[in-house]
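re: ur question from earlier - yeah i can do the single chain one, its not a big deal. heres the input i used so u can compare w yours
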Amino acid sequence: MENDILLKIEGLRARVEDKEILKGVDLTVRRGETHVVMGPNGAGKSTLSSVLAGKPQYTVTDGAVSFMGRDLLKMSPEERSWAGIFLSFQYPVEIPGVSITNFMKTAVNSRRKALGEDPLTAAAFLKLMKEKMALVQMKQEFAKREVNVGFSGGEKKRNEIFQMAMLEPVLSILDETDSGLDVDALRIVAEGVNTLKTPEKATIVITHYQRLLDYIVPDIVHVLKDGKIVRTAGRELVSQIEEYGYDSIN
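and the output i got, formated as tokens:
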């Protein structure tokens, strides 16, 4: 049904400077679905997530993208976030001098303001933060630390899932969230993602590896090669890639 469609990408082409990276991507994401985008290095996976998030260094040259019926490409990065899009970065940035508590309070209340809602009281915010930190097994003392400063790779990724839990996005885009994670951190991050899944929301997981998909079970798997989605299927496609590699996918 059309009302179930959250994101619709049609013929999306994008470049960085003079290099075309996306060469006609078509993708439809409905409420309640978990999509996985896989592909070799340089295929355009991270470019796709960056274009959806509105990173300015990427230029869209053709195609259309709608999010909940709105023209996504005409929205600023802030408007996309307020509308309910969340991007988990492949390499989370450090923000010296800004505590996680202050960062999240600003982010949560900015979105609430955009939605016409009152800001959370201090007590309500701290209660929410405590609940969401428990979800991803973050220690309470992390709330006082500067954003990602001195964090291990696993701590940075866990912090991003915590941010996702706090913001409650409609569409979450996880760009290689499994990169650099050990088995325990991978499981905790995946459990957080699974716990946040609802029939009204959707997730796009971008990954190289099958191991994350042992914990996050996708509904639909896409293979992106040379800037185009060349195959879409169910979870069985992951096993084919694991056994035969991307060269087996045309």
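Residues 46 and 217 are 21 Å apart (CA to CA). not sure if urs matches, ping me
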